[in-house]
Design a protein that fits this description.
Elements (H helix, E strand, L loop, with lengths): L2 E5 L5 H10 L3 E5 L3 H11 L2 E2 L3 H5 L4 E4 L4 H8 L14 E4 L5 H13 L3 E4 L2 E2 L1 H7 L2 E6 L2 H11 L3 E8 L3 H29 L4 H8 L7 H11 L9 H18 L4 H15 L10 H6 L3
Parallel strand pairs: 1-2, 1-4, 2-3, 4-5, 5-6, 8-9
Antiparallel strand pairs: 7-8
Helix pairs in contact: 8-10, 8-11, 8-12, 11-12
Length: about 290
Amino acid sequence: MAKLAFLGLGVMGYPMAGHLMAAGHAVTVYNRTTAKAEKWAAQHGGSCAATPREAAIGAEMVLACVGNDDDLRSVCLGDDGAFGGMAKGSIFVDHTTVSAIVTREMYGAAAEAGIGFVDAPVSGGQAGAQNGVLSVMCGGDAEAYARAEPVIDAYARICRRIGESGSGQLAKMCNQIAIAGLVQGLAESLHFAEKAGLDGAAVIEVISQGAAGSWQMSNRSKTMLEDHFEHGFAVDWMRKDLGICLEAADESGASLPVTALVDQFYKDVQKMGGNRWDTSSLFKRLRAFD
């Protein structure tokens, strides 16, 4: 078992760090809100540190799940950053969904310090983190990934290296692009059923068993019909992710017309006060037209 540090105890990081502790690793946590770190340590029996650097001292591997590009830079760099406390030969694993640009920037900074860096964004939401069944898509050097994979397995259903540094983040963008279109399609299907006077639940029971079936349909159609949109992955976060996707598409020349449109639909949801509603709230936007 390894000596680890985990940085960031949000709705994803808190249970992920708990799975590491349950797997027998020695875990020191850091969170910007100290009370959250102290709560985690009391609950799971690990320890907490006052800064990312302090948490990283002596750790064989440091894992992070923070908010955005700037948050990642803040926990990695500077006098209190984790890189300053990590020994040569140790590994940094980033589970944050960030741009491929900052990932490559951190990969370079880590390499200069003799540290391995694996970008490893996750999919599966809060429930996936709590149940330890996340999908983890990784980029980075093969050797660093090989060392990280057995640790990541504590909370992963599947973990795969996609390619070199930044490839994990690009794969996560593919994930978010696919979700955006699926959720909008499901929202429109339910909206059409309601307008046509059909029983939405009965329709879903039938079509979910055919070619239209998806994870979103199985897990979100019932709550969408019930006007319940409190399922963890907030609209604000999705807009952050889609913004990363659209920026990367501009750089690569990829065409993402549906993604761009759904991003604007989520902007409408924000205007409705739905910043913290989950991504299935696209259906609530359509209902607002009634």
